[in-house]
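Throughout our pipeline, every protein is held as a single compact record rather than as scattered files. Such a record has a labelled line for the sequence and another for the backbone structure tokens. The remainder of this section carries one protein's record, kept here as part of the documentation:
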Amino acid sequence: MLNRYPLWKYLLILVVLVVGLIYSLPNLFPEDPAIQISSAQGDSLDARQIDRVETALSENDIEIKALEEENGQWLIRLRHDDDQLNARDIASDLLGDDATVALNLAEATPEWLQAFSASPMTLGLDLRGGVHFLLEVDMDAALTQRLEVNASAMRELLRSERIRYRNTDVEERTLSIDFASSEDRDTARRLISRDFPDFEYSSEGDGRASTLVMTLSDQSVSEIQDYAINQNLTTLRNRVNELGVAEPMVQRQGPNQIVVELPGVQDTVAAKRIVGATANLEFRLEARNDTPENETETLTFRNDPARSAELMRDVIITGDSVSSASNSFDENGRPQVNINLDGTGGTLMNRATRTNIGRNMAVLFIEHKSEDTVVVDPETGEETIEREPYVERGLISLATIQSALGNSFRITGLDSPTEAAELALLLRSGSLAAPIYFVQERTIGPSLGAENIERGLLSVQIGLLLVVLFMLVRYKVFGVFANIALALNLTLLVAVMSMLGATLTLPGIAGIVLTLGMAVDANVLIFERIREELRNGMSVQQAIQAGYERAFSSIVDANITTLLVAVILFSIGTGPVKGFAVTLSIGILTSLFTALMVTRAMVNLVYGSKPVKKLWI
């Protein structure tokens, strides 16, 4: 029989619409602005401290929506976005060093929706607010670090071949080694040039003033710098992923700069500390009494500068060999970091420790920093900022090797659980191949995001209203079908984006507006075809059947073509272009479903089971 669906098809449409409604509902419950309070010592905060914070907020006319406690952490939900920064400052001043206070956006989805794992769409930087960082990679430091690694490997090679040397010096792109005789230098040159082909070699001086000078070639310098910025990109992406930021952007800009955008991040100080951290670890043996002075280095402890230890210059492994790291507490309740090494790192650690049982091994914390100073030109009076990089080195621990270590061990001697957590994060995400410095920092506040959301929603509402009015005037009852399908299409689009965890941006809202237009376009093709068949003398039932069947190919062709364009935009585009392509792609698929199946189901239910002499179309 014409214009009748089997029962299973009606049930399928109903299931899809119900699921779409459930997963789109969380978007009606926006996240609450909140502050999160946790103990700096890792234990639970006293409820009386939270009562003091609650009283202080009330005295400052900051309205609290709810107060929650979970695993020793307290979450204070606020009524208004504008109160968030003020509430954090009040709580921080009141609790002092006893607690850590951070900004948060607390999920407000009802528990019955959370039972279905339903959550709202993620909003992009232009809608939710966040931070924008422009970072600069120190290319000179990248070269210096590579030369120091090569120098350590060369010293080990020379010692294994029993070739005497005195000093190793690193300057810009040149590495030089002093020897006691020309014969030792020439022998060392043959050995080193075989294993290190990236250098240009030259010999200087004779006798006890013999020096081997190794200069990196231009091609090697270019490769090292490219590796540095690509490795930094990878590390920064890993760190951002550890922060749990949805749809971050980390991309290269120019020869030595990186752009990082973090939507939804409100605690910019914490984000900046994690993103810009240049910390790394080195594991070294403590020097013996008979070790030559040029092979040792004296370093102090981070938490006790009065203490120091004399270490070997050679490094056993660095943080680059860490495959995973997690923070926990030892048997005395002190913070520690549990470390697992990769295969190469485990082999090197085992080789170094099994022959040095009873000897001390140090964990050295290295951090690259910079200090900005304002310099005034005496002639023009112009002020410029000069960056002076420097390196801070400090010992975390110095422990006796009791037995040969393998791929797993732990680091103790950390000051706080927060320091342990951040160190574990940095080790998991990898160390930077070269130091980075913040050139620019911009914060997009929640008010700007709210304004963008308001204007975006207004554009959708205006577009939707105009389309609804046009369809009602033009197609009457069939216009009602089209408008119902349009609302269901928007619901399904939001539901699919929420289920996939896709990020909604301002260009994405433009994609939604375009989707609404394309959804109506499919209905217009079908309805105009039905009108044409009625004018040609077909019966009502035959005209409906022919209208849907003969418009099908045109609708699919038009939508598939647009879908291919959207896929191409997503594959080659970045940032806003991807946001537009995502919503457009999903919208095309939901439009096909609602235009071809949902409206047909409604027409079948109204007209398919009875004789009809005239259509209101």
Observations:
- The chain has 15 helices and 23 strands.
- The longest strand covers residues 383-400.
- The chain has four domains: 7-26+445-607, 32-106, 130-276, 278-443.
